[in-house]
C-alpha cells in the first residue's frame, strides 16, 4: 500500500468517526473594510462575544455599531453538541474568519459542529441559502434508486419536524431502514430565528442540493448559511442530547366510534370485549398468513400491508349516529355552506372537539370501496396548510367526510368584503400567500403521493384562528404517478377564471395547472378584486391578469394593489417591495405556456429569498378580448371541436 493510499484511508476513517475537523470559510464580495476602522473594531467585538455568550441551546446573535459601521453576527451549534465543544467550535470560527476573510464585510464559517456568520446587513431572522458547501463520503450505495427514495422520505419527515420547532431550537433527527437492511441516520437543523416557513424553504433548498453532491453516496452533508443537514449509514449524533431539544409532535387524538356515555362498569366491559375481539382477529390473521405461505401463491409482506390499510381505514370510521347528533341532525342552523358535491355542517363531538362535516350528494355514484380508498388517501395528507381529514361515516346511501373545523371561514369572505378586508394587512396577506404555496408544494412533491388539486380558489382556502391558510375541498383532486407529468381529459372541471388555458382548451392538466390557479389567487389577494368579472375602464382590459401585467410592465404596479394597502393602514414600512415582488411572482405563475411557469418549490424559494433573481414574465393568457393581444376566448372559439368543456361553474 502506497503512502497516498494509506493517507486516504486514514482520512476516510477520521471522517466516518467524526475526528476530522471540517472547516470551511466563504468570504462575500459585498464590500470591504480597511483595518483600524470602526467596522473592524465592531467586528472583533461582535465575534468575540459569540463564544463567550452562547448557551446550552446552541444559538446566539450579537451586533455592534451604528449605520454603515454596524456589524451583525450569529453562531449556531449542531443540536447534539455539548456546550464546551460548541464554544470551542465558535471560537475556532472566529479565528479562521479573521485569517481567511481579513477585509470582507460579510462571511460565513462552517464546521461539522457549528456555523458562524457576520454581515453589515441584517442576519437575524433573515433566510440565506447562498453560498453553500457540500461534503460527502466517497463510497457509493449499492441500490441507488431505493436509497434515494428512502432518504428523501426520511429528510422530508425531519424537515417537517424541524420547521415545527421553537424559537430556541429547530432540529430533528431520525433513522430508517434502507436497502439491504442497512440503517440510514439523518439530522437537519435550521437557525432558530427563522420562521417555520423560512426553515422549510431553507431545508428544501438543502435537500434539493443532494443530487448534485452526494445523491448516490453513503453519507453527505449540505451546509447553507441558515440551515444544514447530514445523513450517514452510521450513527453520528448524540441521541440523548438532541432528544432533549428537538420538537416532538403532539399525539393524534383518539376518536370515539359510537356515542356511548357509559363509564365504570360499562368501560370495563367494553375493554374486555375489545381485547377478546382483537385476540380473535389476530388468530384469524395469523392462521390466514400461515395458510397462504403454505400455498406459496401470495407474499406475506403484501398481506400485512393490506391488513394494515384496512385497519387504518376502519379506525377512521365514525358511527353515523355520532355525526348525526354532533350536527343536530344536519340542521340548517349548523349548515356552513353548499357546494356541487354536497353540504357542509358544523358539529361538536361528545369529547368537545369541533368538526366540519361534508355530507356528499347521494347521486355521486361512488361505491363504498372507492370512497374508503379516497378517505385513506386524504387521511395520509398531514400538513399545517391543508385542512385535516379526521374520519368518515357510511350508512346506506349516506357518505360523510369529517374534517377539522377551521374557525374563520374562507379567504373570499375577507379579501372581497369591503369591511372584513380591513382585517388583512399586508403581513397577514403575505403569510397567507406563503402558507398556500407551502401547502401546494406538499401536495406536489413532499407527500407520499403526487396530488393535483385542480380547484384552487379563494373559497377553497380556509383561515384558522391565527388567520393561517388551509387548503380545502379535494373533490376534484387527482393522484399522479411519481414519473407522470401530465394527463388529458375530455371533461374539464373546476372554476372559470382559475383554469389554465391548456386545460380549458385541450383538457390537459398537470402540477402547472395548480401553479396557474395559485398565481390568480396571489393577484386576487393583493388587489382585493375577483378575477372573474373584473373590469378596468381606463386601461380597456377585462380581466385581472391583463390589468396586473400591463400595469406592472409600465411601472405602475402599485396601482394594482388593494386601496387598503396603498393607504398605509394595511401595510407596514418596507412592504412595498414585497408587494411588488409578489405581483411579479403571480404573473410568472399565470404564463400562457405551462413550461414558462415555475414549480411550487421555486415559488416557495422566491417568496422567502429576496436574493433570488426573478425571470421577466411574458404576456399572460387573457380571458377577454379587451386591450388587444392574444385572447383566450378567441382560442376557445377556434378549438370547439377539440375538447368537451363542462362543469365550469363554481361549486
Properties at a glance:
alpha+beta, about 650 residues, globular, Killer Toxin P4, Chain A, 20 helices, 5-stranded antiparallel sheet, 21 strands, Phosphorylase Kinase, domain 1, disordered C terminus
Structure write-up:
The protein has a 5-stranded antiparallel β-sheet, covered by helices on one side. Strands 6-9-10-8-7 form a 5-stranded antiparallel β-sheet, with helices on both faces. The chain has a 5-stranded antiparallel β-sheet with strand order 11-12-13-15-14, sandwiched between helices. It is an alpha+beta fold and 651 residues long. The termini are far apart. The protein is globular. Residues 1-21, 250-268, 294-311 and 623-651 have low confidence and may be disordered. A hairpin with a 5-residue loop joins strand 17 (461-463) and strand 18. It has 4 domains: 19-119, 2-Layer Sandwich (Killer Toxin P4, Chain A); 133-245, Killer Toxin P4, Chain A (2-Layer Sandwich); 320-404, Phosphorylase Kinase, domain 1, CATH 3.30.200; 413-638, Transferase(Phosphotransferase), domain 1, CATH 1.10.510.10.
Amino acid at each position: 500500500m502506497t503512502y497516498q493510499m494509506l493517507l486516504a484511508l486514514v482520512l476516510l476513517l477520521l471522517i466516518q468517526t467524526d475526528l476530522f475537523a471540517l472547516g470551511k470559510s466563504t468570504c462575500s464580495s459585498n464590500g470591504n473594510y480597511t483595518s483600524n476602522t470602526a467596522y473592524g473594531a465592531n467586528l472583533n467585538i461582535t465575534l468575540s462575544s459569540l463564544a463567550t455568550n452562547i448557551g446550552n441551546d446552541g444559538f446566539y446573535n450579537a451586533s455592534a455599531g451604528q449605520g454603515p459601521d454596524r456589524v451583525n453576527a450569529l453562531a449556531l451549534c449542531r443540536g447534539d453538541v455539548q456546550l464546551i465543544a460548541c464554544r470551542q467550535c465558535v471560537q475556532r470560527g472566529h479565528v479562521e474568519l479573521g485569517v481567511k476573510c481579513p477585509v470582507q464585510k460579510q462571511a460565513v464559517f462552517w464546521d461539522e459542529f457549528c456555523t458562524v456568520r457576520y454581515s453589515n446587513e441584517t442576519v437575524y431572522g433573515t433566510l440565506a441559502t447562498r453560498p453553500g458547501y457540500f461534503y460527502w463520503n466517497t463510497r457509493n450505495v449499492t441500490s441507488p434508486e431505493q436509497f434515494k427514495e428512502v432518504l428523501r422520505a426520511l429528510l422530508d419527515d425531519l424537515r417537517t419536524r424541524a420547521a415545527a420547532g421553537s424559537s430556541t431550537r429547530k432540529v430533528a433527527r431520525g433513522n430508517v431502514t434502507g436497502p439491504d437492511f442497512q440503517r440510514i441516520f439523518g439530522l437537519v437543523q435550521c437557525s432558530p430565528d427563522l420562521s417555520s416557513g423560512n426553515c422549510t424553504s431553507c431545508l428544501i433548498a438543502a435537500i434539493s442540493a443532494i443530487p448534485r453532491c452526494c445523491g448516490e453516496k453513503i453519507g453527505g452533508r449540505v451546509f447553507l448559511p441558515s440551515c444544514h443537514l447530514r445523513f450517514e449509514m452510521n450513527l453520528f449524533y448524540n441521541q440523548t442530547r438532541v432528544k432533549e431539544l428537538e420538537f416532538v409532535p403532539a399525539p393524534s387524538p383518539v376518536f370515539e366510534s359510537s356515542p356511548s356515555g357509559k363509564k365504570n362498569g360499562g368501560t370495563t366491559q367494553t375493554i374486555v370485549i375489545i381485547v377478546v375481539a382483537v385476540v380473535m382477529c389476530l388468530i384469524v390473521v395469523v392462521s390466514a398468513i400461515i395458510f397462504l405461505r403454505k400455498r406459496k401463491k401470495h407474499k406475506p409482506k403484501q398481506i400485512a400491508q393490506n391488513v394494515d390499510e384496512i385497519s387504518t381505514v376502519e379506525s377512521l370510521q365514525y358511527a353515523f349516529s355520532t355525526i348525526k347528533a354532533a350536527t343536530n341532525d344536519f340542521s340548517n342552523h349548523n349548515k356552513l355552506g353548499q357546494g356541487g358535491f354536497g353540504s357542509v355542517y358544523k358539529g361538536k363531538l361528545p369529547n368537545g372537539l369541533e368538526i366540519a362535516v361534508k355530507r356528499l350528494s347521494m347521486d355521486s355514484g361512488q361505491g363504498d370501496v372507492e370512497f374508503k380508498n379516497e378517505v385513506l388517501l386524504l387521511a395520509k395528507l398531514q400538513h399545517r396548510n391543508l385542512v385535516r381529514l379526521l374520519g368518515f361515516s357510511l350508512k346506506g346511501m349516506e357518505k360523510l367526510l369529517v374534517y377539522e373545523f377551521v374557525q374563520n371561514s374562507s379567504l373570499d369572505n375577507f379579501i372581497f368584503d369591503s369591511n372584513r378586508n380591513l382585517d388583512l394587512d399586508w403581513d397577514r396577506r403575505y403569510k397567507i400567500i406563503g402558507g398556500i404555496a407551502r401547502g401546494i408544494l406538499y401536495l406536489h412533491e413532499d407527500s407520499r403521493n403526487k396530488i393535483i388539486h385542480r380547484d384552487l380558489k379563494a373559497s377553497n382556502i380556509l383561515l384558522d384562528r391565527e388567520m393561517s391558510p388551509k387548503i380545502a375541498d379535494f373533490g376534484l383532486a387527482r393522484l399522479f404517478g411519481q414519473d407522470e407529468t401530465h394527463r388529458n381529459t375530455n371533461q374539464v372541471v373546476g372554476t372559470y377564471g382559475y383554469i389554465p388555458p391548456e386545460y380549458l382548451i385541450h383538457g390537459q392538466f398537470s402540477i402547472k395547472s395548480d401553479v396557474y390557479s395559485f398565481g390568480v389567487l396571489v393577484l386576487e389577494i393583493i388587489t382585493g378584486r375577483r378575477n372573474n368579472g373584473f373590469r378596468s375602464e381606463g386601461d380597456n382590459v377585462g380581466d385581472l391578469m391583463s390589468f396586473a401585467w400591463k400595469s406592472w410592465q409600465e411601472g405602475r404596479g402599485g396601482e394594482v394593489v388593494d386601496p387598503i394597502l396603498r393607504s398605509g393602514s394595511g401595510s407596514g414600512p418596507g412592504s412595498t417591495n414585497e408587494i411588488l415582488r409578489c405581483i411579479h411572482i403571480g404573473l410568472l405563475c399565470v404564463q400562457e405556456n405551462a413550461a414558462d411557469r415555475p414549480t411550487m418549490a421555486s415559488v416557495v424559494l422566491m417568496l422567502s429569498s429576496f436574493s433570488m433573481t426573478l425571470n421577466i414574465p411574458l404576456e399572460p393568457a387573457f380571458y377577454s378580448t379587451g386591450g388587444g393581444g392574444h385572447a383566450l376566448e378567441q382560442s376557445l372559439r377556434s378549438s370547439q371541436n377539440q375538447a368537451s368543456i363542462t362543469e365550469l361553474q363554481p361549486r
